[in-house]
Amino acid sequence: MDSVILRTATRYLLPLLLLFSLFALLRGHNEPGGGFVGGLVASTAFVLYAIGCGVKSARELLMISPRRLIGVGLLVAGVSGIIGLLASGVFMAAQWSDRGFPVVGKLGTPLLFDIGVYLVVVGVTLTIIFALAEVEE
């Protein structure tokens, strides 16, 4: 699809959607949101960009292979479980820092797990959709 309006709109919407996906990620353990919802919103941003500007340009903008995002996300989620195992003897036991941060609040392993889920969802979604879109082109 070659539309100047869509191409221009996606350039403005991409940063807004990515910012909203980070907002959904960070508020996930206290309210609705989290890694899954944030990952879907981030994937939507890149898919919209791919529709407007092409898959090749969306892959260049992403700067990392979606398959690598899957691996990194699984690693991060696994590390969050191992931290609980080492600290309390229970895999995936939540561990929290003593200090709070202004926007995020207290940091802990649930947020680390959500970041892993976020990366896995973005990676899986973009791997599938980019592959389908490239077959279409």
If you had to describe this structure to a student in words, what would you say it looks like?
The chain is mostly helical. The chain has one domain. Helix content is 74%, strand content 7%. The protein has 5 helices and 2 strands. A two-stranded antiparallel ribbon has the order 1-2. A hairpin with a 3-residue loop joins strand 1 and strand 2. Helix 1 runs antiparallel to helix 2 and helix 2 packs parallel to helix 5. The radius of gyration is 17 Å and the shape is elongated. The mean pLDDT is 91.
Give descriptors for this structure:
137 residues, mainly alpha, two-stranded antiparallel sheet, 5 helices, 2 strands, 74% helix
Radius of gyration: 17 Å
Strand numbers in spatial order across the main sheet: 1-2
Number of helices: 5
Shape call:
elongated
Strand content: 5-15%
Q: Name the poorly predicted regions.
A: none
What would a concise description of this structure say?
The protein has one domain (4-136). The protein contains five helices and two strands; from the N terminus they run ααααββα.
Layout of strands and helices, then pairs:
Layout: H1 4-26, H2 35-53, H3 55-62, H4 66-88, E1 96-101, E2 105-108, H5 109-136
Antiparallel strand pairs: 1-2
Helix pairs in contact: 1-2, 2-3, 2-5, 4-5
